[in-house]
Specification:
Aspartate Aminotransferase, domain 2, single chain, Aspartate Aminotransferase, domain 1, alpha/beta, 4-stranded antiparallel beta sheet
């Protein structure tokens, strides 16, 4: 007997496209918005010494208390208002699981982080998109129209936004938070690179939720995200949080790295300097024609090419440099995204980009 597995899957799942990170092998990888720097040997030893003491035969701390305490200490937010996730993706999943009945709407501007829609659809919620304006900012009037029509349960807003790199207008975000009686989630995955946060508004609005991640500042391999919100929201999320969702190794390593954060803060400064270098070089290429970069507050820069982006992506790969190809019909047509690398990587990327854009395509 052979069973049709595809038909057994939920219809919403059958219709989903799998999220596929690029797995092309390249000497220089600038596609995944990771921190390109490794920690120094002394700090690495501290991390390894700390995890060596873990009893792997025992379950981890289900509440991640040590990690939440250091996050609380650094953010000034009470520990009761924090929650740890296996990356911020899991926290998005918890929010939709806990607050959205089947078919209820979530709303977000596009282009943005694709997992908002993927997770919503996989859980039976209905993702609803509103295009950003030509400056990649939120179109407030269109958001208001969509809200009145759809009455979404959750609004997701990424600032700085991926893949566009910009921060949304603070006044627009505040207007949305003040106006709509929905949960408003501000995803601040890239906030460390711009110094802006909405955490200061949490006491004023009990429906505001801020998401943060440690992945972009050097801990992508640990898969640690955290949520900050009103204690009532956190308590509801604990009801759907899987037991032991954060493993012992990630908790301990992240705690040590946050306690000794000078190294990470130094790396963040170098990434910002690298972003400024890339921006200047890409703007110089814009003067020559063919490349249009967009301002960024994140650890990457989105740029549009007047030539075929698929071809340029392929040629850069042949030069040993992998960046993210975002070329799809619509506002991202012929767009590519480059993550800030180490200085030699940034220089190699610019050199290769000049070479491949100078050739006829």
């Amino acid at each position: 007997m052979e069973i049709n597995i595809q038909k057994m899957a939920k219809r919403d799942i059958r219709e989903l496209k799998t999220y596929k990170p690029e797995v092309i092998s390249c000497p220089i990888r600038m596609e995944a918005n990771e921190n390109p720097f490794v920690i120094n040997s002394q700090l690495k030893k501290q991390v390894l010494d700390s995890i060596a003491k873990i009893s792997l035969n025992r379950y981890p701390d289900s509440l991640s208390m040590d990690l939440r305490e250091i996050i609380s200490k650094k953010s000034g937010i009470k520990i009761e208002n924090t929650l740890i996730g296996n990356g911020s993706d899991e926290l998005i999943q918890m929010l939709i699981t806990a607050f959205c009945e089947k078919g209820e709407k979530i709303l977000y501007p596009v282009p943005t982080f694709s997992m908002f829609g993927i997770i919503a659809k996989s859980l039976g919620a209905s993702p609803q998109e509103v295009p950003l304006n030509p400056e990649w900012d939120i179109d407030l009037e269109e958001i208001k129209k969509a809200y009145e029509k759809l009455k979404p349960k959750i609004i997701f807003l990424s600032s700085p936004n991926n893949p566009t790199g910009n921060c949304f207008s603070e006044n627009t975000l505040l207007e949305i938070i003040k106006t709509f009686p929905s949960l408003v989630v501000v995803d601040e995955a890239y906030a460390d690179f711009c110094g802006k946060t909405f955490m200061g508004h949490l006491e004023e609005f009990n429906h505001l939720i801020v998401l943060r991640t440690l992945s972009k500042i050097g801990m992508a391999g640990l898969r640690v995200g955290y949520l900050i919100a009103h204690e009532e929201i956190v308590n509801i999320l604990h009801k759907v949080r899987l037991p032991y969702n954060s493993n012992s190794l990630s908790q301990k390593a992240a705690t040590v790295l946050l306690e000794e954060s000078d190294e990470l803060e130094s790396q963040i400064k170098m990434i910002i300097e690298g972003r400024e270098f890339l921006w200047k070089e890409l703007k110089d290429l814009e003067k020559l024609g063919g490349i249009i970069p967009f301002p960024s507050h994140a650890n990457f820069i989105l740029f549009k090419t007047q030539k075929n982006a698929d071809h340029i992506h392929m040629r850069l790969t042949e030069e040993g440099i992998l960046i993210r190809n975002l070329n799809v019909p619509g506002p991202l047509k012929n767009c590519l995204r480059v993550t800030v690398g180490q200085p030699f990587e940034n220089q190699a990327f610019i050199k290769a980009l000049k070479k491949v854009t100078a050739n006829k395509t």
